[in-house]
Amino acid sequence: MSSCIMRDKPSKAGYMKKYFIAVIILGICCVPKAEATLILDTYMFYNNSAYDSLSDEDAISPVKQALVPGQTASSSHFTNYYKGLNGVGFDIVGLSDPSAVSLSDFIFQAGNSADPSAWGLAPAPASLAVDVGAGTGGSDRFYLTWADHAIENQWLQMTVLANATTELAAHNFYYFGNLVGDVNEDGTLAAIDSLLLINRINAIAAEASPDYSTDISDPMDINKDGYITPSDTLIVINSLNQNPGNPPALNLFTAPFNPVLYSGDIPNPIPEPSTLLLFAVGMLATFAKIKE
Ligand SMILES: [Ca+2]
Ligand SMILES: [Ca+2]
Ligand SMILES: [Ca+2]
Q: Whole-structure pTM over 0.70, yes or no?
């Protein structure tokens, strides 16, 4: 006699349960993972220049951008502005909350040797601002400024940290340079830099209707006032005379492919006013409790 094991036919409720579990598993598998953010463009701008009278955006150099790992430094990667490197920016796409980005999401180092891992911390930025949606393709554009003359004749390394706020997949490293008065943008300061300016001024003066005005991308306008004048020449001569016989030079290094993340102590950024306020309220509440 053969025996046959009959399996109970699943109930309607059982089918529904299995159906819902399948739908949930499918949903978990198919929900697209959050896309990482991406830094699209980098900028240098001439903060506190004649071009900056309305906005930092107007003072962005159209011909400068950051040096990135693997690239060798060239004139595209440094300015010769007499106030030093005092404005950098970048566009980032995909940020959930641009307003949450703070100075604690960056590390800034400065130096002029070929090994950025040996550079010390740079002067702290004076400001960080975001123009939401104003970057390339509707990305968010960030602006960072430094005090005038705080970063001169050297490189700034900007590390944008990969964390929950920036949502970057990996740390991003950028290098921005400055060599005050380097008219021919060859990375060294020499008599030729002042001679080129003198020749230019003489050539303009010889024109029937001398026009000393110029545009933002002109490397001869050292003070970025929009004109080529003896003031620019004077800045170059002063830079040359600062250390006679050993004028400043910028190391046109090749940025390492795998930069080392700064491992030293990073000073805490100044707490936001709201944090200070919360702290004060907390302290008051504690005192009130103690008095009770
Ligand atoms: Ca400004
Ligand atoms: Ca030069
Ligand atoms: Ca000028």
A: yes
